[in-house]
Amino acid sequence: MASKFAQFLTDNKIDPRRVAAASRKLERLRPEDRAKKLARRNAKKSEAKPAEGAEKPAKPRSGRPATPRLLSAATTGKPVSGPAKTRLLRAVNAVLEQKKKSATDLKTLF
């Protein structure tokens, strides 16, 4: 019995290797992400309170792509953590966008 994730990939003719490649491209840390992490770390060291009304800095990318092990666990129906499901969703949506199809949501994948 295939999982919902595996069934979705076969229905939309998506190769799991393509999902892994898209995830690697999306989640890779870029210089602006490293700068955000550094700024957050420096602010934590100085323990300076942010000014009222100041907006929170945006979260950087995770730097953790979907691995072949994660893809095999998702396709066989083993339990997958929440952040890993989100990474898979972002990668699948990127592939669907390349195929000029509409994006999906987490409920249809898992």
Keywords:
single chain, 110 residues, mainly alpha, 0% strand, elongated
Mind explaining what this structure looks like?
This protein has 110 residues and is mainly α. It folds into two domains: 1-28 and 64-110; 29-62, no CATH class. 60% of the residues lie in helices and 0% in strands. The protein has six helices and no strands. The protein has helices at residues 4-11, 16-27, 31-46, 68-76, 82-98, 106-109. The longest helix is centred in the last third of the chain and has 17 residues, at 82-98. It is elongated. The protein starts with a helix and ends with a helix. 13% of the residues are buried. The mean pLDDT is 90.
Number of helices: 6
Number of domains: 2
Distance between the termini: 14 Å
Please tell me how large the radius of gyration is: 17 Å
Residue share in helix: 55-70%
| Class inferred from helices and paired strands | mainly alpha
Beta-strand segment tally? 0
Bulk shape = elongated
> Residue-averaged pLDDT, rounded?
90
Helices and strands, in order, run as HHHHHH
Query: Which segments are poorly predicted (pLDDT under 50) over 5 or more consecutive residues?
Result: none
- Give the strand content: under 5%
Note the main sheet. none
Summarize the helices and strands and which ones pair or pack:
Elements: H1 4-11, H2 16-27, H3 31-46, H4 68-76, H5 82-98, H6 106-109
